[in-house]
Amino acid sequence: MSILGSRVLRVEDPRLLTVGGTYAADVRDPLLAGAATVTFVRSTAAHAELVAVDGSEARAQPGILGVFTGADVELDPVPPPVPMFPAAMSRPLLARDRVRFVGEPVAAIVSERAEQGADAYGSVLVDYEPLPAVVDPETAAADEELLFPDAGTNTALAFDGGGPTDDLFADCEVVVTQRLLNPRVAAVPMEGRSAAAAWDDQGRLHVWASVQNPHAVRDLVARTYGLDAADVRVIAPDVGGGFGPKIGLHAEELLLPWLARRLRCPVRWHETRTENLTGMSHGRAQVQDIELGGRRDGTIEAYRLQVVQDTGAYPSGYGAFLPFLTRMMAPGPYAIPRVEVGFRSVVTSTAPVHSYRGAGRPEATAAIERAIDLFAAAIDRDPTEVRRQNLVPADSFPHTTAVGTTYDSGDYERALELALEAAGYEKLRAEQQARRAEGDPVALGIGVSCYVEVTAGPVAGGEYARVEVGPEGAVTVYTGASPQGQGHATSFAMVTADTLGVPLERVAVVHGDTDRVASGEGTYGSRSLQVGGAAVHRAATTVLEQARALAGELLEAGVEDVVVDKDTSRFHVVGAPAVAVSWLEVAAAAAAPGSGPVAGDAEGAGERDVRRLVAEDHFNAAGSTYPFGAHVAVVEVDTDTGQVDLRRLVAVDDAGRILNPVLAEGQRHGGLAQGAAQALYEEMAYDEDGNPLTATLADYAMVSAAELPSFELVAMETPTPLNELGAKGIGESGTIGSTPAVQSAVCDALTHLGVRHVDLPCTPERVWRALRTASGALD
Predict the structure, then answer these.
(1) Mean pLDDT of 191-197
(2) Is 339 within 8 Å of 160 (Cβ atoms)?
(3) If we measure between CA atoms, which residue out of 482, 536, 489 comes closest to residue 512?
(4) Could you tell me where the DSSP H helices lie in 452-610?
């Protein structure tokens, strides 16, 4: 009987819930003995010429080992990660000549103890010559005030897609338009950025960091410091949340090896929550203009999306690239024959923008779903009917959209029907009409969204795995995927145990150490199981063939006749289970002196005295996969105060074959919470001078369980043909579908009062203002 599909509890949790995890701040490696603490002095100006930074007074204070400025650091600025971004927009590790956002590091204090650095902070004197802040991305696009004069523009990247064309909506009977705000949000991981660096006696660099892909970080560090990759070891211990901003290193972590080398001592840095909110990369931050046209019978014929992407002060993450993903998914799950998407990514005097849970795909879904609601209202049709009418048919997969994206598999109408049925949609509409007829001041709103997203995309890539069986039958899996809470130790052990036919508790998973794992592409874009898990499955399959060959020798039978009984972990000849050998016996035989490697052993093993059960694999995906689903949100809105109460959230999230419902449901719960929070509460706000207004959790409205209902999850599985597991990604789906559903519900609650649209987040103030504007009270 297969363990796959079973509700297996996370094997990581007993350790995390008892003795606790080992995070970057907890590492006590001998190389870090006596490590100094780094404190960054941060800019208080959003945009200014950096006239002088004077650390002389701070250097004289007790315990201060050094105070360093941008002028001291001889390292080149870090170029943008994508070559198409202007090189003039490279980011220095400490600000030089100019600062471009509040919170940008201008100096680094290194002290024996953390409190000494904090005490010295105020003694570092910084002289600024203020320049106009450029906070609004549409203002930045006008290039009236340049953040990078040498670049000659604030535009980091632009794409017109061949449009706009004059005749896109020529045949449409109805065209709706709307300007949308997709607000800037903070990732707020439980563990902020944290890192340490040390050089050993042989000149080898060791870095511990809270990151999502240690191998890519190793390569970045090696390039920055002119080292061979083999001379850098990166370890990602337990990581307390990533969500995208930890895909790579920020300037602060990347400076630590320089400080350690300069002072000849190991160094550590762990950010505060305010540093996390103001200095760690943010997400979303798009201004969108939508146009959707079609016939009065509900047929959608054309769609145009124009995006201005705020990439923050530096295109140092992938923020400027995000609109490509928005374009890729612009039509959503709908068969729209004509689609145009253009965008401009611009720098502003705010914190940089990076990938954040969904990375461009939630923005695409928010736009098309809002457009369909507006179109349905314009033709006086139920929004679910318009969606159903225009969804890609289940018999048309693989389906290529008007922008050239090919969806692998799906049944979008079935997902919608399941969500509506679970929510009791018709009863909800009846309740809504009854409450409106009674003049109830607490309005009921029902919002529906359909979505499709890309995982392991836009380029699927590959992942490394190694599976090895020890002489006592213990199995070790080495994976290049590096988790931040996804449950790899459980899921990869399940794949291995099921393939080999061994107990789950016999499997250990190793990750996050570039010395122990040969290569890796990391964990992001919901790629781990479909790519990393597929690599584990293939490596384990090779090991199983090796074991069958050896078991055949022990049973004096041909390998083709040998099978493994997964219930007993014993090998026997087909049809003769009474005579069998255990995995322990096979493993012991493999470790005993022999004449050579077992048939099918890892390539290049060569002749040796000990036969091993080991295999490596690097799985390269044939393409990205496209999870999909439908969400229904139910809200109550107090029309006197604008307060919104999320009453229900029903979610159908189809991520292909589900290997462990416990893990999948956990990912869905997290995604739904983040998506609902973006719809109702969260926004990283700045004033017109570029000062952050939400720099603490007293101001940034981070959602808690108290604001959320118990989510109603509906199961659906449509396997993908692109990997042997049939799995798609699940980590971001909840985020993508829930935000537009909740926003739609808020708008729906207010339509009878003349409100057409409320921008995200739908805070009480925004709702109150929309109601008063509609009634003429704010004219």
Answers:
(1) 98
(2) no
(3) 482
(4) 488-500, 534-555, 583-591
- Evaluate if residue 596 carries a pLDDT over 90: no
The tokens describing 214, both together, are: 């240690």
Residue 618: beta bridge partners? 464
Closest CA to 625 of 731, 468, 487: 731
Q: Where in the chain is CATH 3.30.365.10?
A: 282-457+623-775, 462-620
**Of 673, 736, 676, nearest to 365 (Cα)?**
736
CA atoms within 13 A on the CB side of 730: 31
CA 638 to centroid of chain Cα atoms? 34
Percent of the chain with pLDDT strictly greater than 90 = 93
- What order of strands is seen across the sheet that includes strand 155-159? 155-159, 338-346, 300-310, 282-294, 174-186
Q: Give yes or no for a contact between 667 and 659, defined as CB atoms under 8 angstroms apart.
A: no
- In the predicted model, is pLDDT for residue 597 greater than 90? no
CB of 634 closer than 8 Å to CB of 428: yes
| Residues sharing a CB contact under 8 Å with residue 314, sequence separation 6 or more, in sequence order | 80, 89, 90, 91, 100, 347, 352
Longest Cα separation, the chain: 91
Give the integer Cα–Cα distance in Å for 41 and 69. Answer: 10
Q: Which CATH number fits domain 13-131+193-239+246-279: 3.30.930.10, 3.40.50.2000, 3.90.1170.50, 3.60.15.10?
A: 3.90.1170.50
For 462-620, which CATH class? alpha beta
- Entry pTM: 0.95
pLDDT tens string 247-293: 999 999 999 999 999 999 999 999 999 999 999 999 999 999 999 99
**What's the pLDDT tens digit per position in 76-98?**
999 888 888 999 999 999 999 99
Angle in degrees, 0-180, between the axes of helices 383-390 and 361-378, rounded to the nearest 10: 120
pLDDT score of 537 more than 70: yes
CATH of the structural domain 282-457+623-775, one choice from 3.40.640.10, 3.40.1110.10, 4.10.800.10, 3.30.365.10? 3.30.365.10
- What integer pLDDT is reported at residue 594 of this predicted model? 64
